[in-house]
Design a protein that fits this description.
39% helix; alpha/beta; 7-stranded mixed beta sheet; 299 residues; 2 domains; Rossmann fold
């Protein structure tokens, strides 16, 4: 069970299948569900599967025909199921196909639904403040937040998209057991201009979006954000997670949400747990999937 004011993430109602006897989804809900689907590239998963199949065929020196490409459900149902499952759960397809696909976000359906639910609660409860994402990659989660503000006609909140826009630095702590620096994981380096173009592609680039460029250790301590209603952390490392919490937690309004993308990873979990223990935070953590979690700040 979630905390008061939240709904289970699995209660999201598909656009095309209202519950029997329920009212049809609102225009706003239809838009947000379509926006999530587009950001996850759910309509294009057959094309993604075809790409992977073609790449495998090229490596193996075997034929790959248009007939196969245009009927992936028949020719490669198991691969398609793996691609769909990986996108739903926000995972890489496998170690060999490590690249994160063609979506605008790596969070997967469950964590994007989580973000939807947390923001809806913030708006319903009139929790003051802006929406801050630390670690935006291609911008998908931040684009969703801006789209939700647009859908609900909210004009007095800003989405802050904070990132180096050059990939992750080398590990900054002995606790950072995984190296995701640009020479190791170049796919994580997405420029600010490119992220801005993604906002623009969805018609959501305006003065309610602010980009903050630089490594968190240099930008977060002096971020002049004011009050925060929703803080989303996706910095991967122990040090990045701790830096953001140290700098911004006090700015989160009572009733606001702290959403942690990497809580399922030991080094990020350690940072969160140590911070909460040091600050005496007792609000329960709700884990959403294999790695995403959030808690609601108490008064």
């Amino acid at each position: 069970m979630g905390e008061p004011g939240t709904r289970p993430i699995t209660d999201t109602v598909p656009v095309t299948a209202p519950l029997p006897g329920s009212d049809p989804p609102s225009v706003e809900r239809r838009y947000l569900d379509l926006l999530k689907s587009a950001l996850l590239n759910e309509p294009g998963l057959e094309a993604e599967a075809a790409f992977y199949l073609a790449r495998e065929a090229q490596v193996a020196g075997t034929p790959f025909t248009e007939a196969v490409a245009y009927d992936i459900p028949r020719h490669a149902p198991e691969l398609l199921a793996r691609v769909q499952g990986a996108r739903t759960n926000g995972r890489f397809l496998d170690d060999d196909l490590r690249r994160p696909g063609f979506s605008y976000t790596m969070v997967g359906r469950h964590r994007l639904d989580e973000l939807d639910a947390c923001l809806a609660t913030v708006l319903a409860d009139d929790v003051p403040g802006d929406l801050v994402e630390c670690g935006v990659w291609r911008g998908g989660a931040s684009i969703f937040l801006r789209g939700a503000l647009a859908a609900y006609g909210v004009t007095d909140r800003t989405v802050w998209a904070c990132d180096s826009f050059a990939g992750l630095p080398a590990p900054g702590s002995e606790h950072d057991i995984q190296d995701l620096s640009p020479d190791v994981a170049p796919e994580l380096a997405v420029s600010q201009d490119r992220v801005a173009s993604h906002f623009e592609a969805f018609g959501l680039l305006d003065d309610q979006v602010r980009f903050v460029e630089g490594y968190f250790e240099n930008t977060m301590p002096d971020l002049e954000v004011g009050t925060i209603a929703l803080l989303r952390l996706d910095g991967d490392y122990y040090s990045s997670t701790m830096t953001v919490l140290d700098a911004l937690y006090d700015s989160v309004a009572p009733g606001g949400f702290i959403v942690v993308d990497d809580y399922g990873l030991s080094y990020c979990r350690q940072a969160v747990d140590e911070f909460r223990a040091a600050r005496g935070v007792t609000a329960p953590i709700e884990q959403v999937d294999w790695t995403g979690a959030h808690w609601r700040k108490e008064a």
